[in-house]
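Model the whole thing, not chain by chain.
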Amino acid sequence: MSNRDGGRSDAQEGGGILDTKEFLKRMVEATGVSGYEDSVGNIIREVLGTAADEVTGDTLGNVIALKRGEGENRPKVMLASHMDEIGLMVTKIEEKGFLRFTSIGGVDQRTLVAQEVRVHGRRDLIGIIGMKPPHLLTPEEGNAAIKMQDMVIDLGLTEPEVKEAIAVGDLVTINRNFISLSGDFAAAKAMDDRAAVAAMHYCLLELKRMRHTADVYAVATVQEEVGARGALVSSYHIMPDIGIAIDVCHGEMPGVPEQDTAPLGKGPNLALGANIHPKLFERLSELAREHNIPFTLDPVPGPTGTDAWVMQVTRSGIPTALVSLPLRYMHTSVETLSIGDIKLVGRLLALFVASVDREFVEGLLCY
Amino acid sequence: MLLKRLSEAFGPSGSEGEVRDILVKELANVVPSWQRDALGNLIALKPGARGPKVMLAAHMDECGLMISSIDKSGLLRFRKVGGLDDRVLVSKHVVVGSKRVAGVIGAKAIHLQKPEERNQVIPLSGLYIDIGAKSKEEAEKLVKLGDYAVFATEFGHLSDTVVKGKSFDDRAGCAVLAEVLSEDYAFTLYGAFTVQEEIGLRGAGVAAYALEPDMAIVLEGTTCNDLPGSEEHGYCTSLGGGPAITVMDASVVCDRRMIAELERLARENDIPVQFKRSITGGSDAGRINQTKAGIPVVVVSVPCRYIHSPVSMLSLKDFEATIKLVKLFLRSIEGGFLL
Amino acid sequence: MKDLIKQVVECYGPAGNEKAIRELITGIVAPYVDEIRVDNLGNLIALKKGGEKKLMFAAHMDEIGVMVTHVDKHGFLRFYPVGGVSPLTMLGNRIVFENGTIGVIGCEKLEAQKDLTLNKMFVDIGASTKEEAEAKVRIGDLGAVSREFVDLGPRLVSKAMDARIACAILIEALRTVANPAHDIYAVFTTQEELGLRGARVAAYSIAPDVGIALDVTRTGDTPTSITMDVSLGKGPAVKIRDSSVLCTPAVRRYMEQVAKDNDIPFQLEVLEAGGTDAGAIQLTQGGIPAGVMSIPCRYVHTASEMVDYRDVENGVRLVKALMETKYTG
């Protein structure tokens, strides 16, 4: 089934509404390493603000866009997609101005080699995490992965020049722009999980054309990559009746068993298992079938490793679900996905929100 | 026998429905009302005329398997639910889904193996559940993605006092709790049959958050490793040594006052008790202990050999002594024991 | 202040049995505060009133140790670690139990030194039989490292500098603070070494507007050390991150500003592995702005942790100044 429901026209309704691809590009090219999401947070606040009734923040920096529903005693649905990205942090400025660094979130050290990076100090400086040229390597050296603790960032400046602009604690991201690939595929850093923020935005735009009872809290969460910390505190103070995390899942690629991946361009991936309330899964799959939205399944017996895992056990418990975007090469700087999938996720979420009423929510507690 | 029915019930983490149903039916006459929540916890409410509010907790879920894909040959691939050692899976009988479709986890015949192979653990990727289907289509008529499977172990007596069955961790705890709930107390008692303990101690904390008890007792079926090849200091607990009290585990430091009171009651009533001799492994007690402004807890366990495998073993003497000890503790609270 | 430090670091208080250190600190701190209480996890919570916002300081009282799990027929004790205990640094150490019984840590014969693991080790309290041993110690008892405090002049050495040095700093700040600008909740927490447990529940019940943990951190100033830009003697460290927390930038800025305004030297700290109470405080309820002041410390989690006394004095000055300067972040 490849019948795509939801085209470009939906996202261009009204003046000044940002196109999904454009919004995604702006977000992934911005900086927002876990714990320091302000830069991308401001962009998201501005854009979600045009699609929602009000936008607020909280002490950890989560951006919360509220779109109200209609009627009395409205149930609350919280959508959570994380805006933080993995990155690096300067730990020491060595002699001659080379920088030592550590990671924030799960960075594969093999993806750092021979990269251009941006060091975000008083100014942004470009640096290189280089490696010894092949001419100088011994055979053993050539076969081993280089450890992060042995890498340095070379800014090409003298020590005093470096110290004038950079300090211990400064953040580093890979210098990568958004790349359009063939068809509607695109690659960039931080598609995990800003593509989901774009899906959330698309959902809010769709909801403008629909009637819904539930209040929707679309939350761009912080610090997911270091333990879903933003979702923990935001679900605590929002106290939603339903929590849906939108994240990415592994896209189909050679060398990985098919059962552990989902195909790109074939719609959202729905998780089922202990972290997912069975009635939410049922409702999402029913709506997808009814509205010809293709989808794939991911049976997860334990932790999903997403915001859904922490939301589910907040306070006295929240019914949760997880909708994912298939993504290849996760946690590299060339994460690849299909833009069409983003819109399908957004549409499915909107249909779900529109179907939620007080009765449905009460039924979730009757296990 | 309730322990038998609970042991044989189908209830891996995330799919505890059958266990819930058995308990509600069993306790219909002694529990006035039940509270449920978004995760599937089942909480017996026995309000009392006065305080304190005491929460007892036992988890309903067991380790199992989850179908993750169906091969075109009709064989089922699976993922593990909870902490199962890969080595206990091979050559076993399982049941899949709510219809309990029979399946086997087979292994290459010894005749077809090279000698070196026999020393290697078969990786999870090399294991399948065979339900006898000859194709994917045929399999899909019986099972679907996301269905759970559990070991098809029958409960049985090995002697008058020793029984075998699956999932005594923690159906033994549930049976103890059910027995304790059959009596009435002057204070408020909550009996929380929790979910998803095996995949990360998930249900107990949200239950404690809602109930806000003054103290809690977690009832477990715990590691008993008193076997040849282990040294005594590695036993953790011993079969026949009586209920095991936890001083500390990986998730919690148990309340000393509660431990002292349990020891006193055991001494005065000739109940043998032992202390759990390891700190590895967490329990629901940790989550409860750190809920809101903190809740004093203790863990009391029935020693079980071979937990987290298809068949485990316990002593009915330990089991009954655990029930007796917990009831004495609650009567002591009734009689004025406070923290 | 060295006498106070000696008293506090030498006191018995392994994670899970902080009674003795709590009683010691209560006795010292009571005259300087308005209210004191103990909560369900044994945290000591002292309140010194002074303003509108609630500023919580957390310094953990617990130290690493061992729990007795078995007494064998010859009177040797087997144990499990309580907190981050390393077999290498424990071998040959002396352990002390609550009742004062002292034991030595020995090990089984090994094929190679790298085979040394905690389950091959035992405590010898000098008993010859099980009965003799059980007259003094039993299963479930907790032991802490037994080692006296030493003053080397500019540097101080003891077991449990982590985080008793922070407790001493907090006590001294409470004693000398003149005009607190906040309601100061000085919390001496429990079970930090077991997973930030005390701080988690204390922060829940206090619900502060901002939380600052006081602890120790490692250094990068010993031969071929880990890469870390923190050294003894360069001042207390304002933490940027560790594995439990990405310190709230606004709190970090507040701490840096207060240090600068009061001419207090400080360093910036990035710790790759290790956590503090701030990690628990920051994620309490709807989120609490959190930061950490760390005292640089060499040889963390050994019997001889070393700090610089000038860092400690500057740490007191900084904590005091934070208490007296309104947080507006």
